[in-house]
Specification:
Distance between the termini: 22 Å
Order of helices and strands: EEHHHH
Number of domains: 1
Number of helices: 4
Low-confidence stretches: none
Radius of gyration: 18 Å
Helix content: over 70%
Strand content: 5-15%
Strand order of the largest sheet: 1-2
Shape: flat
Length: 107
């Protein structure tokens, strides 16, 4: 696991952050900055946001919300739903990090 990934595209060499390294670093920060109780509270808060979006948009999943965005009647409505999709994706990613940190604490 490196800090950077190297890829060659034609005549260029590109470097990008290693997603696995970045993820493990984020989990480490959560463990360093929070005790078990704080992580569980944070998990609950993140789950609550997702549940609120599910109730607000009457969907069970992120995919259903994406489908709603595809069939809206106005650009504003589409933009609002796509913004929620982006927020939901970020919260779901963060939730995964928190769950991983909790699991690590339980080992």
């Amino acid at each position: 696991m490196g800090v950077l990934l190297k890829s060659n595209t034609g005549r260029q060499t590109l470097y990008s952050p290693d997603p696995l390294h970045t993820r493990k670093q984020a989990v480490r920060e959560l463990l360093d900055d929070n005790d078990h109780e704080a992580l569980v509270r944070y998990k609950s808060e993140l789950e609550g946001r997702i549940e609120w979006w599910q109730d607000e948009h009457e969907v069970d999943s992120l995919d259903e919300l994406r489908e709603q965005a595809a069939i809206t009647d106005t650009a504003t409505e589409t933009r609002n739903l796509l913004e929620t999709v982006t927020d939901w994706e970020l919260v779901a990613y963060r939730l995964g990090l928190v769950e991983e940190a909790i699991e690590f604490q339980n080992c």
